[in-house]
Every structure is written in C-alpha cells, then in structure tokens.
Specification:
- The protein is 21% helix and 30% strand.
- With 284 residues, the chain is of the alpha+beta class.
- Among the domains are: 102 residues, Immunoglobulins (Immunoglobulin-like, Sandwich); 75 residues, no CATH class.
- The chain has a six-stranded antiparallel sheet with strand order 3-13-14-12-11-15, with no helix packed on it. The protein has a four-stranded antiparallel sheet with strand order 4-5-9-8, with no helix packed on it.
- The protein has four helices and 15 strands.
- The chain is elongated.
- A hairpin with a 2-residue loop joins β1 and β2.
- Keywords: Membrane, Transmembrane, Transmembrane helix.
- Pfam families: Neurexophilin.
- This is NXPE3 protein.
Length: 284
C-alpha cells in the first residue's frame, strides 16, 4: 500500500512537470509569433455545424475595399440599384458654389397656399417654400435638405410634412391636418444643397471617417486594433465579413494574436479635419 501511494505521488509530480513544460512552451510561442503570420478562423454556427474561413489577408496601398469587386446576382443588382436611386440627391449646376451663393434661411421664406380656405380634419395643407442665398437672390436649383412640420404647442401635437423639390429654388410641402384647432407651420433648413455635396464627397472618399475597434485576448495578453469596412495601408487584416449576407467587415490583425482571439467590439471615434475652411462654412 505504501508503494502504491509512492508511485501515485511520483506520477502526479511527472504530470505537473509536463503541464509546466507545455505552459512555458505555449507562452514562448505566443511571445514570438511572426507579425505576418497568416492564421485564425472565423467560426459561424448553423444547426450545430461549424464552418471555418481563413481570416488574414494582405492589403494593398489603397483602402481595403475588395468587396466592391464582388459579383452580384440579378436580385442583388436590382436591390443595389433601388437603394442607390433612393439616396440619389440633386446636384448644383456648378461643381463649386461660393458660400455667399448658398442657401440662407434668414433670406428665405414660405407662404401658405390658399390661406383663406376653410380646412377640416383630414384636409391637406400646402405650403410653398422659396429659398434665397446670402445676397437675397432667389436660388435657381434645388437639393436643400429641409424639414417641415405642423404643431400645436397647447395640445402637444405635431406632424411632419411631405416635401417636393421643384429643382428651381421652390419647394412644395404637403401636410395632412390630423386634429382640430390652430396649427403652426415650421420649416427648417438642416443642410443647404452645397453642404449635401460635401457630405457626398466624404461618403465616397472617406467611408471610414467613423472608425471602430476590437479587442483580442489570449490568457493575460491583449491587443486592440482598428476595424472598419475599408482599412488603408498594407498591414495584415482579419476578415470578419458575414458569410451569409456578404456584409464586409475587417480589423487590423493583432501583432501577436490570432484573428480568432477577438473578444469585443466598440466604436473608436471620428476622423477630424476633413473639411476645407470654405466647406466648413456650409455647416455653421
């Protein structure tokens, strides 16, 4: 019995020593991973079946937007064209408009069409908006981002209006009168048409102006890298594109950890200094 106890102690000591050796070896491997190691798997689960996808990809000097070259099915192509048509916005006749020639809400005004008409609940109220620039001159093109509403402060009631851009500096706004009593009409300029063009430029040239970050962790070692739809530079990236929807998403690969070690995701911040001095005037 004493011999059995002694043998058990020797066996436990050997197993403990082996575990320490394995732990030290793994730690050594972690600390000396090559920065350009191509490894890691993106795991998804469907009906308890796991599928893997290689995650690390080298980028070129241009932003990593290879998803733009994807081949779309006929249904996807139709959906893309529909979405692009929905966000299509009218442009000014000239590429660059001076700030004094942009829309000035102080010089602009609106009138109620047929104000003497008797209105009842359910009727439609029409308003005509006339926009002018900072010199008081009527604008000859549209594209302004307006918001219109009717409201009754005493009743704490309100409703938005449907805006039609006539593309000539005039806008028609239609309201449905939903309650009896007095209503006030308000029209606000959110962005002039010139500012919209700046936003369109930023959308095309700086799709990553809002950036995100992900944390990767293995044991006590952790790293945080930047993530986005497009990532500039020629560093290795982890591909977290959704395998079902095709929605692209990439993170810079950690220097010493695999892509599979990602544990969290959060917003990083905003890029600043993207507007010229003239462009910034449109957003004051």
């Amino acid at each position: 019995m004493w011999r059995d106890s002694f043998r058990l102690q020797i066996f436990c000591l050997l197993m403990a020593g082996l575990a320490i050796v394995v732990l030290v070896h793994n730690f050594f491997q972690l600390e000396h991973l090559d920065d350009d190691t191509i490894s890691g798997s993106n795991w998804i689960t469907e009906n308890n079946v796991q599928h893997s996808l290689s995650q690390t990809t080298k980028t070129t000097r241009k932003p990593y937007c290879s998803y733009k070259q994807q081949t779309l099915s006929k249904r996807e192509q139709a959906e893309q064209e529909s979405l692009l048509a929905a966000i299509l916005w009218p442009k000014p006749p000239d590429g660059k408009i001076a700030f004094v020639e942009s829309t000035d809400p102080a010089h602009s005004d609106f009138v109620i069409v047929k104000p003497s008409r008797f209105f009842k609940v359910g009727d439609e109220l029409e308003v005509l908006v006339r926009v002018k620039d900072f010199q008081g001159k009527p604008k000859q093109y549209g594209g302004d981002y307006l918001q219109a509403r009717i409201h009754s402060p005493l009743l704490k009631a309100g409703a938005t209006g449907r805006i039609v851009d006539c593309r000539n500096g005039l806008y028609k706004v239609f309201f449905t009168l939903l309650w009896p009593g007095e209503v006030k009409v308000s029209v606000s300029l959110v962005h002039p048409s010139e500012a919209i063009q700046v936003l369109l430029r930023l959308r095309e040239e700086k799709p990553d102006r809002v950036y995100f970050k992900s944390s990767f962790k293995s044991g006590r070692y952790s790293e945080t890298t930047e993530c986005n739809v497009c990532l500039p530079g020629d560093l290795p990236v982890c591909n977290f594109t959704d395998l079902y929807t095709g929605e692209p998403w990439f993170c810079y690969k950690p220097r010493k950890l695999s892509c599979a070690s990602r544990i969290s995701h959060a917003k990083g911040g905003y890029q600043k200094g993207l507007l010229t001095q003239e462009e910034s005037l449109f957003f004051q």
